[in-house]
Structure formats: structure tokens, C-alpha cells
Amino acid sequence: MLYPIAVTALLAAYVYKNSELTKHHTALTVPDLPAAYFVGGDYAEHCTIVKDERNNTLSYCEDIAFWDHLDSEDRITSRYILLGCDPNRKAWNTVMGPLLDPEPFAYLWLYATDTGSLSPVTLANYPQGHTFHPLGMEVYPSKNGAVSNLFLVNHARENSTIEHFVLDPAQPTVARHIRTLTSPYFVAPNSIALTSPTSFYLSNDHLMTRRLPVPYGEILADTETIHALPLSWLAHITLDPESSVGFRHQFVVKEVPFANGVSVSHDGSQVALASTINLEVRFYDRNTTTNELAFSHSVQTPFIPDNVRYDDDGVLNVAGHPDPQALVRVAANVTGAIAPSWAVSILPTTADSGLAGKMVSDLARGAYNLLASLVTQWNPATFLSSSVPYSNVITLFQSDGTVFQTSTTPLIDRRTGTFYLSGLYQDGMLVCSSVPN
């Protein structure tokens, strides 16, 4: 097993890449995180974990996505959250391993943000015998009751595919399967960010994967990760309107070490892409006509970033893993293992104006000592200045794993000030109220 080598390399990269952590932690150590910290106030008062209390199938939800219902003037009339949950992840994980049993079917869930109700989603017309293991996904908003397209990465038995579903606001708990997209370029598809109802960016996290024959799969996949080899990429996919199966695949960013979560800003002008092994989020200026991207800048994160999401105010929110060694133990199903969570906002604006200025003021920026630990347990005003001028990284949530573990996707509903968080190996979804505006 190459797990110890991979973990050592990940931790070395973690410490080396993050200058602030390098100052305050000895080699190959991780922060001593609190049981739970939430930027909006006391965790016990503001946060809860919603679960499937009956069958516990709302678990191990790697990705969550808003499904907005809009009126004729594009105002949100209702907002749902779609969750992709795979309780079988410890037996079938094509990114981290193992690849033991792909047969148990995963689940989609729908959460109504207005009422807090949970409903399982039925997959209609889904191909018989086609296994279902969702990873990244995104659903296009419904306008005036129109149906919405849902595109979802599926790490199925034979190969990884993109599944196209339709969701109807008149029957919101049914996802009707339309087509399965396959391509030799879908080597390790990970995250999806829509650019229209029929087009999207798609990250590919590895070139060499665990699907390769034994022992090459584990060796080569770990080698690519260990050495931060720039072999992954971001593509843009456009469906062919004249074909039920055809589409255009366009490489837009190449040579990325471990390309992971991707998100498009609400105005469509910017794309954010997590480079997991580099502990950074890369920002690109987008040509809205051609979908081509031009690198703008990158921002370091104090953890290994997983998924990224722009919110209603154009703020990028990022969640990830502060302790990769613990994450590996959880994935390996080590008895009693837990792994911590960390989510942040990246505020690309000046510190004396706009949202960043207000949040920094609210969090008492002047009281924060950059020479102290980055742990909010000792200073709730955790604030990290990135190397990019006026890009500020502010902690939203932290946990040592005892309250909420293995954080992957953060969502913020700015209308209500509600924060949502999913976890790769966590039962349920975290819901916290009173996020500062």
C-alpha cells in the first residue's frame, strides 16, 4: 500500500505551500481545531445537522447544489438544495479507493430551504444495470415553472460518465434520465459548473487513475498526486442540439495538479478552480462567447481545497480538508477514525469597502495577530490575508471532526444568511443560520 507515502507527501505539500501554517506548525502536523466554530455565533445555537433518520441514506454526500425557481424577472421564488449521497463510498471511491463493490446504488435528496423538509429523489427512466455513484453536479434554474437540466458526474462500474437528468418543478422529487455522456476524455471527471442549460465546465482530477489494472492503478494515481504532477485539466462541454448523444469537448485549462472543484461567477465573467494538491484556488477571466479562460491569479487556502461555490453576492466559498492523513484513515475505514472540516470565504475586494470591509470590521480584523495560530478556537476573528492584494480569506466553519467531518461543498444563501455544508464521509448536511452579510 502506498497510503503512507501519499499521506506524507500531501502533508509536506500542505505545510510547505501554506506560508502561514509553515510559520506556526512543525513539519507534518496539522492545526489543533476546535470541536466546532461558526462565524455567525455559537455553533450549538446556530447550527444543526439534517439527516435521513429512517434509513440513513442521506450520508457521504460529496456535492450539494442549489436549484432555484425564478419568476419572469429572474427573482428567486423558492430555493431547493439537491444532494448527491453515496453511503457505499467506503467500498467504491475511484479517487481515493478502494474499488471493491460498485453495485449498491447511491441516492439523490431534495431539501426545501423554505420549510426545511427533506425528500428522496426518484430516478425515472434510469438505464437498467447502470450503476450510480454521483460526484460533482449542478442544476440549471427553473424559470416560470420550466423544467431544469441536471448534469451529474457518475463514477459508474465500467467507466466514469456524465448523466443528464431533467427536473420538473411540478414534480420536484423525480429526476428523469435523458442521456449518458461518455468520452475517452472523461478519465476522472470530478466537478461541474454550468454555463448554459446545455453546456458546462468539467474538471478532470487525474490522468492516471485507480481504474488501471492492479498494481498500476494505485501506484500511478498516487505518483501523480505525490509529485503534484500537472496532468489534470478543465474542459468545456457543449451538447449538440441536433443529436441525442453528441457533444463538443473543448480543453480550456491544461497542466493543473489535481484539478478539483469548479464554479462560475453569477455574471459569468470569472471561473474558480481548486488545485487540491497545491492548496490553492485559481481564478480565470472567462470569455463568455468562446468559453476560453485566461489565468488571473491564485489564492492559497489553509487546507486542501475540495469544492468551490460562488454565492449570491459573488463571494467564493471553499471547503476542504485540514488533515489529509485523517481523511485517508476515514476512507480506509479505520475503526474510530474521524477527519476535520474547514470552510472559508475568499473576498476579492478592498479591505476598506464593500463586503470584505464590512466582514473584516465585523470580525475585528485589528485584533487578529498574524503571528498567532490560525485556529478560531483561540480567536474567533480568524482572518488570513492571501498573497493577492485585497483577496481576504475568512473562516466560515471549522470542526475537528467530532461535530462535522470531511467537509467538501459549502453553500451560502445570502437571502436568508444560511450556510450549508456537505461531507465526503459525513452523515447528513450541516445547516447554520446567521451568516454575516
Give a nutshell description of this structure:
The protein has helices spanning 3-17, 19-24, 43-46, 216-226, 324-331, 354-362, and strands at residues 37-38, 47-50, 61-70, 76-85, 107-112, 118-124, 134-139, 142-143, 148-155, 160-168, 171-181, 189-196, 199-204, 232-239, 247-256, 259-264, 270-275, 280-286, 293-300, 304-310, 316-321, 341-348, 383-385, 391-399, 407-413, 418-423, 429-432. By secondary structure, it is mainly β.
Shape estimate: globular
- The first-to-last residue Cα distance is 47 Å
Radius of gyration: 20 Å
Q: Strand share of the residues?
A: 35-45%
Helix content: 10-25%
Count of β-strands: 27
Structural class: mainly beta
Unreliable stretches, pLDDT < 50, 5 or more residues?
Answer: 1-8, 10-28, 350-387
Number of helices: 6
Tell me the strand order in the biggest sheet: 7-9-10-11-6-5-4-3-8
Overall mean pLDDT stands at 87
Describe the main β-sheet briefly.
9 strands, mixed
Notes on the structure:
This protein has 437 residues and is mainly beta. Helices cover 12% and strands 42% of the residues. The chain is built from six helices and 27 strands. It has helices at 3-17, 19-24, 43-46, 216-226, 324-331, 354-362, and strands spanning 37-38, 47-50, 61-70, 76-85, 107-112, 118-124, 134-139, 142-143, 148-155, 160-168, 171-181, 189-196, 199-204, 232-239, 247-256, 259-264, 270-275, 280-286, 293-300, 304-310, 316-321, 341-348, 383-385, 391-399, 407-413, 418-423, 429-432. The strands form five sheets. A nine-stranded mixed β-sheet has the order 7-9-10-11-6-5-4-3-8, with no helix packed on it. Strand 9 and strand 10 form a beta hairpin. Helix 1 (3-17) runs parallel beside helix 4.
